[in-house]
# Entry
Amino acid sequence: MNRWTHSASASTGNLNGHALSPREISRRLSLSRREFLRGATGAALGSALVGASPFIHGQTAQRKRKIIVVTFGGGARDQETFAPEGQENVPHLLNELAPQSSFFTHVANRGILGHYVATASLATGVYETLNNFAGVPPDHPTVFEYFRKDLKRPSSDAWVVAPSNGFNHIGESDARSYGRGLGATVILPKHLLSAAASGSELDLNHLLRDNYENPLYTPTLQGGEFELQQLDQILRLSVDDFMAHARTLSSPDELSVYIAKRLMQEEAPSLLWITMHDIDVAHSGAYSLYVEGIRRTDRLVAELWQAVQDAPEYKDNTTLFVLPDFGRDADYDTGGNGFQHHRTGDTASRTTWMMVLGKGVRQGVIYDEPMESIDLVPSLGAILGFSPSLAQGKPIKELL
# Structure
């Protein structure tokens, strides 16, 4: 058993009978993650390191660089992940990937805690205020538009694979200054599966469930989506083969990773964004399914990283970012529902982490300086060489 224990003050929100401020709780959560990871992986503290940036800049390096962003979507708490009592649920992240990574223990989300709007904020570098259940694009330019416009990249070089049909507008914003047609192509595997299974008697409901938080919400799909007929044209995948593989899968995220791997093989995009969502089954109130979702996501992230190592276009040339969109309610918050929801906006819901590994990343290093989720896009811009001029975050200095 790991010798580190979870901070009592971080778990209870008080110290010696005195309530702690949200800032102090956030700091203690970060420190608790740091000490747990140091004990579990032997990682060094980033503040003790000095030296030049590990990233190689210049036009040649930027053209070759591959970036994959995975949102550990659905929100997971420390006690089910990066804490002694949760470590059994993330064996791949903890034992295989964390030792290779720079791990940031203190990532704050100060925006709206809905999955689509939070993911839109991650993708724009601005805390978006759109309706989480509305079929609308982000108000501000996305990372895909900055990337393609500034670097003059084709549409084949920026893709999104999203598990929920409500994410069909995530690839391109409503910002007029960037015009139409500069976003990413969005693949919605469940949309493809639904179209392919139309009229079929196959029971694929476990893969087609679209929204755990609001099961009555059915988004309207229009424009910008990858369509069924493009499976063969672009991914060299017949509808029959797609259906046959889907029948062997147990979750929507597995279907998304399958499509992402195919996309890497056939198109090798330089900017690939994958949104996981299985963990959001927590809204159903079943703790066992929530934990199962965490374990599956842990495994799928490791499988994706292995796919990077197996692909000549990606091996030794890819930087992988893994981060949650937000957390979940703490057990001690009387207004919340613990693991089930993320509605209170408490510190546990807002203080998350980020793991970065691959090309140019310092391995086995932990950083606990506070940062925000909207800092992701400016950091990607600094690495790849584009200017996210309307983003409100700032580049993460430890990655530059």
User: Anything to note?
Assistant: The CA atoms of residues 228 and 398 lie 42 Å apart. The chain has one domain: 20-47+57-399. The two ends are 36 Å apart (CA to CA).
